[in-house]
Amino acid sequence: MTSLSPPKGSIARAARVLDVLSLAPDGADLTEIVAQSKFTKTTTFRVLASLREIDYVFQDPATRIYRLGSKLAELSRNAERINVSALAERGMARLAEMSEDTVFLSVPEGAVSICVNRKVGAFPIRTLTLDKGDRRPLGVGAGSLALYCSLSDEQRAAVCRVNKSWLTDYGVTEEGLAAEYNFFKANGYARNKGGVVRGMSAIAVPVVTASGRLVAALAIGAINERMEQSRIDNLILPGLKREARRLAGRFNALEKEQNK
Questions:
Q1: pTM of the entire structure?
Q2: Helix (H, G, I), strand (E, B) or coil at 197
Q3: Distance CA 59, CA 196 (A)
Q4: How far lies 179's CA from each of 17, 143, 163, 221, in Å?
Q5: Residue 206 and residue 152 share a domain
Q6: Among the three residues 42, 68, 94, which one is the final residue of a domain in this structure?
Q7: Helix, strand or coil for residue 119?
Q8: Distance between terminal CA atoms of the chain?
Q9: What is the mean pLDDT of each run of 10 residues along the chain (260 residues)?
Q10: How far is it, in rounded angstroms, from Cα 218 to Cα 199?
Q11: Domain that holds residue 38
């Protein structure tokens, strides 16, 4: 650590201990944490005990090694979702204004797709098939399907295995997903033709960075009558692809900055 003296205050002390553990991917024992944090043994033990109570830190019962806990991983995931949503905000507003329909932003988490933002356009019949925070198995709904189709063969097979019963609840089969994957590869977008809510359709494109990282999917949903092929080809799809490129570019810039 670069600080010459230990920080004061309980939050600052907790932050120092978390910093120490963040630099120890294999964990650290009490002696190591004391040495790196510059705290006394008593203070370090007290801070670790408090962090364990809220699942920010856990201790292996056999080795007595301390590691960062699951709650911090959850906070990190939430922060990432908020970041994606904030970066996509203006682009989603442009899409909602351009199409007058509903725009959705979904992010992948394991075998799940999570809706992290939604913008409603001016058209009076609104497509509200997803709300912020809604979760679906990858492959159900246009945005979720765009994420699914952007995975490797091995990852898609794993998703089908993990979500088998959940997909069945939506009437989705592996054969059906295979057909939609082929459509995605041929056309560059994923589609949902009334598969979740009757009379409502959507299309979606993935957001992928230059490094190949799958960040999110942007989707536009509307009543079936507004999703005719000519409107998709001439308005909706070009708009989605344009905003997906812009959003990917923002993440490319962030990744470059982080790698300096």
A1: 0.73
A2: coil
A3: 44
A4: 50, 16, 18, 21
A5: yes
A6: 68
A7: strand
A8: 21
A9: 53 92 89 94 95 90 87 74 86 97 94 94 89 93 97 94 94 95 97 83 96 95 95 98 96 78
A10: 20
A11: 10-68
